[in-house]
């Protein structure tokens, strides 16, 4: 039961709880109309102290499609933080208005702190370079749906592995499934933090290799997870400019990849994937965006304890479903 819980990092959910969420997301994909009222009367607050397009809008779209309402702010300047209010007080206040809070904050650990002061579930929508668990739910649902499994995969993580919070959360989550291996593709300055190697990969016995060139690795991969260089987390502009175009995935490099490669990217993209790759059927990053909304629907309904519609006779589904989602959702691993 997820009702009333917080989601701060991927480890807060067991593998079984993740599977239940993916199954619920698939039921929603099959017939969204059945879930169109399950959050009627409930309010989601989206507190974004850092810019976002997809994450905030997909949370809001998810809540609206569940029949609930949303309120919040999209930049710290629009909140009392700009007057010096503490995060604890902001959260205590918002939890008087809302039934669930999705928060993004530039400080690592901010979501955990918020959960300690909130009367309602807090969902971490990104805390600095630390974690981004709902992007990971999105990534896992996409992988499970496209590959039909979440284990036995060779996963290339490419780009800014140091500051990219989506990478940290995905590495942690995928290390829990059997027989996954990682290829870490980054410049020396942007290598994955030691704690992921020493406290995630090594204890779980997850094999990994580190390479500098995408060309060296691309032919071996089942999943290629591209990331942008995280400009906002650099201390100086010169380093960013030097590193920002370290990797560019283009049609030439895609020729070296397997036919069943799945290319993911949490987005936004800057230069790291040439737009010519978008036409390639192996490019799955816009399908990933769609899965992101459905998994957030499943998550919100579960945290609010309003996901049970199985007993209600399902009305015929008239909501258009994107063709790639098909009739049936993803398969289990
Ligand atoms: C990511 C994030 O904010 O960490 N974006 C997202 O939520 N989809 C990735 C990024 O900003 O590079």
Could you explain the architecture of this structure?
The protein is of the alpha/beta class. It has 2 domains: about 10-130 and about 290-315, Rossmann fold, CATH 3.40.50.1370; about 135-285, Aspartate/ornithine carbamoyltransferase (Rossmann fold), CATH 3.40.50. The protein contains 11 helices and 9 strands. It has helices at about 15-30, 55-65, 85-95, 110-115, 135-145, 165-175, 195-205, 215, 235-245, 250-255, 285-305; strands spanning about 45-50, 70-75, 100-105, 120-125, 155-160, 180-185, 210, 225, 260-265. It has a 5-stranded parallel sheet with strand order 7-6-5-8-9. Strands 2-1-3-4 form a 4-stranded parallel sheet, sandwiched between helices. The longest helix has 19 residues, at about 285-305. The radius of gyration is 20 Å and the shape is globular. The two termini are about 20 Å apart. Mean pLDDT is about 95; it is low at about 330-333. Bound molecules: N-carbamoyl-L-aspartate.
């Amino acid at each position: 039961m997820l009702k009333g819980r917080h989601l701060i990092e991927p480890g807060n959910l067991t593998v079984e709880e993740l599977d239940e969420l993916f199954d619920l997301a698939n039921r929603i994909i099959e017939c969204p109309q059945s879930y169109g009222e399950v959050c009627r009367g409930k309010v989601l607050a989206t507190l974004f102290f850092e810019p976002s397009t997809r994450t905030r809008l997909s949370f809001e779209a998810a809540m609206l499609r569940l029949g609930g309402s949303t309120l919040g702010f999209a930049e710290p300047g629009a909140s009392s933080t700009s007057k010096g209010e503490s995060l604890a007080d902001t959260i205590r206040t918002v939890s008087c208005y809302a039934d669930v809070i999705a928060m993004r904050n530039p400080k690592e650990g901010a979501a955990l702190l918020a959960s300690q002061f909130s009367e309602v579930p807090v969902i971490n929508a990104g805390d600095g370079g630390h974690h981004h668990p709902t992007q990971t739910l999105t990534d896992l649902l996409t992988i499970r749906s496209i590959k039909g499994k979440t284990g036995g995969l060779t996963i290339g993580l490419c780009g800014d592995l140091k500051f990219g919070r989506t990478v940290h959360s995905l590495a942690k989550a995928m290390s829990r499934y059997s027989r996954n291996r990682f290829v870490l593709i980054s410049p020396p300055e942007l290598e994955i933090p030691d704690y992921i190697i020493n406290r995630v990969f090594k204890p779980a016995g997850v094999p990994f290799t580190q390479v500098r060139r995408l060309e060296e690795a691309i032919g071996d991969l089942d999943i290629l997870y591209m990331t942008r260089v995280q400009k906002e987390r650099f201390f100086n502009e010169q380093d960013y400019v030097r590193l920002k175009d370290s990797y560019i995935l283009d049609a030439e490099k895609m020729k070296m990849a397997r036919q069943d490669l799945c290319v993911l990217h949490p987005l936004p993209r800057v230069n790291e994937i040439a737009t010519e790759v978008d036409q390639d059927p192996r490019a799955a990053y816009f399908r990933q965006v769609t899965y992101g909304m459905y998994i957030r629907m499943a998550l919100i309904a579960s945290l609010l304890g309003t996901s049970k519609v199985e007993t209600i006779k399902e009305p015929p589904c008239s909501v258009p479903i994107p063709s790639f989602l098909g009739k049936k959702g993803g398969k289990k691993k």
